[in-house]
Amino acid sequence: MSIKAVIVEDSRLARNELKELLKSHSDIELIGEAENVDLGYELIQKTHPDLLFLDINMPEKDGFELLEMLDDVPITVFTTAFDEYAIKSFEYNALDYLLKPINDKRFAAAIEKVKSKIAAKEEENGSSAKLTESSQIFIKDGEQCWLVKIGEISHFEIVGNYTRVFFQGHRPMLYKSLNQIEEKLPEGSFFRANRQQIVNTNFIATVVPWFNGKLKLTMQNDDEVEVSRRQSYLFKDRMSF
To answer: What is the pTM of this model?
Structure first.
């Protein structure tokens, strides 16, 4: 297993410390480093790493803002000198949290977690150009943030220039068009019900005939979605009705 990693960290000393620690782990390939969020974003978009070592407290933009900018979030290990971020980092579903200065034993434990996570993802999903059920997206709506798996999202809905995302009782807004989102979604689970909505078929509770050859779906959270007439034919064929 060769794991591609990048470091986004404003301190050159801290970057060098991480590079020194990585020398003991030959299966981790460091493919780049960046000293701020904007450069980190460009690096991640260009290299598509498996693993991100991410500092939280950086000038201008912090590590959480970088996650917000990404469509597909790599496995993330936060690194910081401030222990007050520890609990918050796990609220973002970070795989691990390393407090500077980082010792060899603690770093090795984090790497083992990374290997286990990647091996499980490869076994479950294989490689794909699109997002998978276990891919994570970062959503920030006001002061609240989530790192949510694609497979946990029940449906999407256009609201002006935003898209509302429904998952686990939450309904935050994402500043992306529904078409942008649809291009990335795994085709096996998600279905375009109409111009305004995409549903995860795993979260459909009931399907009933509706007017003019349409269908009406009731989602597990009791939201109702009307399937357009054209899409109703496709839905019936797909679901073998």
So the answer is: 0.55
